[in-house]
Design brief:
CATH superfamily of the largest domain: NADH Oxidase
Protein name: Nitroreductase family protein
Order of helices and strands: HEEHEEHHEHHHEHEHE
GO molecular function: oxidoreductase activity
Low-confidence stretches: none
Number of strands: 8
Shape: globular
CATH topology of the largest domain: NADH Oxidase
Largest sheet: 4 strands, antiparallel
Helix content: 25-40%
Mean pLDDT: 89
Structural class: alpha+beta
Number of helices: 9
CATH architecture of the largest domain: 3-Layer(aba) Sandwich
Length: about 325
């Protein structure tokens, strides 16, 4: 495709802007060039942000890159995605169009899921996610050679892993709840939601109002949900982008199957929590995103899909 029409630009941009973004304005912009769409950094003046926040912003850009490819393929275009194609420039991802494509039912469903995805911050319904379904969802984290060998999505479902995760999340929640600087930054870029009884771990963002459950309660809550962890073999720019691609693809694969979810990175801002997960879970890499998936609980009014928000507040 040599030229993009105004309608194509608008449609693709709307889809990509449904991707979760962190800390205020979206950290990406799109550039339409002959035969490709480039996803570029949009973080001028953000160099002073903490390392963990910069990492989260790259992860969210990776998610946007995944959405970009899904949007193009959903419109009948054969694509090739390359992350960090020019090695360190402002271009974080480039999706090249390689001709036409017969759109499959799966691709149509993924494209529709882009607009349905939202953050679900409350307990799931009683129906569990069976292991086979979870395995199929995880298998979609990085097809077509998108760094799949350097990226893993694992399920934390053994007793020791759940207990260790609960201890680390409890520690992080107490530390972040008392961190005035962190709370000030959080209030500046996220909206306070009225969660009522659900303003507690592991569902809510960690604010000064968040109630911290005791250890046995948190362990039981984690046991009753499906908890995934996205890790990469390295901790560089391209690894952070790969983690974002994996997270978005897994999330959308779950939405296609009628599930909901949310992601959590706040606790991973603490070095000791990241190190603790690596040690206690025996990880062969670096953790970037905790994800919870499940079936929605019955509600009188379904939640309205959201199109903006952060990884910590991923909407």
């Amino acid at each position: 495709m040599s030229r993009w029409t105004a309608a194509q630009r608008r449609e693709i941009t709307e889809a990509v802007n449904c991707s979760p973004a962190v800390c205020g304005p979206r950290p990406w912009s799109l550039r339409f060039v002959d035969g490709a769409v480039e996803l570029c950094r949009n973080d001028r003046g953000q160099e002073s942000l903490p390392e963990a926040v910069r990492r989260d912003r790259l992860v969210s850009c990776g998610a946007a890159a995944a959405t970009l490819e899904i949007a193009l393929r959903g419109r009948g275009l054969r694509t090739t995605l390359r992350l960090d194609p020019d090695h360190g420039t402002e271009v974080l991802a480039r999706v090249t169009v390689d001709g036409g494509l017969l759109v499959t039912e799966r691709e149509r469903h993924l494209f529709a899921a882009v607009f349905l995805r939202h953050s679900y911050r409350r307990p799931f319904g009683e129906q569990p996610v069976n292991h086979d379904t979870c395995a199929r969802i995880i298998s979609e984290h990085g097809p077509d050679g998108h760094g799949v060998e350097e990226t893993q999505v694992i399920r934390i479902d053994d007793d020791a892993g759940i207990a260790a995760t609960a201890r680390l999340l409890g520690y992080a929640a107490a530390a972040l709840r008392a961190d005035a600087g962190y709370q000030r930054d959080l209030a500046a870029w996220s909206q306070q939601e009225s969660l009522g009884d659900f303003d507690t771990m592991p569902w809510a963002l960690i604010r000064t109002s968040t109630r911290l459950p005791d250890q046995p309660t948190l362990v039981e809550r984690l046991r009753r949900q499906t908890t995934l962890l996205v890790i990469t073999s390295g901790d560089t720019r391209i690894d952070h982008l790969r983690a974002g691609v994996a997270t978005q693809r897994v999330w959308l694969a779950a939405v296609v199957r009628g599930m909901v979810g949310s992601v959590h990175t706040q606790s991973l801002h603490l070095r000791e929590v990241r190190a603790g997960l690596i040690e206690h879970l025996g990880l062969a890499g670096f953790p970037h995103v905790l994800m919870r998936l499940g079936h929605p609980a019955p509600m009188l009014t379904p939640p309205r899909p959201r199109r903006t928000g952060g990884w910590a507040a991923a909407r």
